[in-house]
Amino acid sequence: MQVVVITGSTKGIGLGLARAFLTRGCRVVISSRSSAAVKSVCADLEAQFGAGRVAGLACDITDAAQVQALWDHARRSFERVDIWINNAGISHARRMLWELEPADIAHVVATNVTGMMHGCRVAIAGMLAQGSGAVYNVEGHGSNDMILPGMSVYGASKRSVRYFTQALVQETEGTGVRIGVISPGMVVTELLMNDWRDMEPEQREQTRIIFNILADTVETVTPWLVDGMLNDQASGTWIEWMNEEKAQQRFEDEAYLGRDLLGDFGL
User: Fold this and answer.
1) Which of 88, 114, 158, 181 could anchor a disulfide with 142, C-beta 3.0 to 4.6 Å?
2) 154 carries an active-site annotation
3) Residue 166: which residues within 8 A CB-CB, separation 6 or more?
4) Across 198-222, average pLDDT
5) Boundaries of domain holding 131
6) Catalytic pick from 136, 154, 163, 256?
7) Is residue 147 part of a domain?
C-alpha cells in the first residue's frame, strides 16, 4: 500500500489525484494552505474510503519549514512516503506584464517555482534517507514553450518546471529516487474557469471553442495520471495526458467539435 503526499490537494486536480490513489488502495496525505479545507477534505475522504488511510496538514509551500513539517507529518502518520507530488500552484489575472502588480508576480513565482523547489528538496532528501521514492512535478501552460499573451509570468513559472525536473533527473541518477512529470493538459478546474471569465468577451468566445475540444474533467484525467505514476518504474518519465497526436485527433473528431464541455459547468 503506497503512501502518497500531494500538495494543493483540497480541490481541483490535486483532490482528483487523491481520490484516484485512494480508489487504488493507497494511503494519501492531503495538504493546502487552509487548515479548515484540509480538515474538511480529510473527513470527507475518510468517510468514503475508511479511517486510517488519510492524513492531512496545512502547508504553505513557499515556507521551507512548513514543507519539511508536511514530510515529517506523513512519516509519523504512515512511516514512509513512496510518492510526492508537487501539485500546488496559482495563476494571475490574464494581464500583460506591465499591468500586473509586483505582489502578484512575486506570489506566482514563490508558489510555482520556489514552492515546487522546496517540495523537491525535502522529498528527495527524505527519500534518499529511506532508500527509495518518486517525486513528480506538475506541468502547465508554458511548459512546452507555448506563449499566450497575458500569461507571461505564469507560463515562465511552468516552463521552469521542465528544466528543473530534467536537472533533478540527472542529479538523482543511480540513487534509487525517481523524478518525473505529470502533464494534465487543460482540465476544467477553478483555475481554468477563472481564467476564462477574466478574458475579454471576443477572446472568451474564441477560447471557448479550444477549451471545448481540448479540455477534460478532473474525473477523466486524474485516474489515468495515477495509473501512470503507479506503473512507472523509470526516472525521467513524462506522464502526458494530452499530446500533440491526441490533440490533432480531437480537432478532426465530430464528437469533440460538437461538445459543450464548458456549458456543462454553467459557463
Assistant:
1) 158
2) yes
3) 236
4) 80
5) 3-187+217-243
6) 154
7) yes
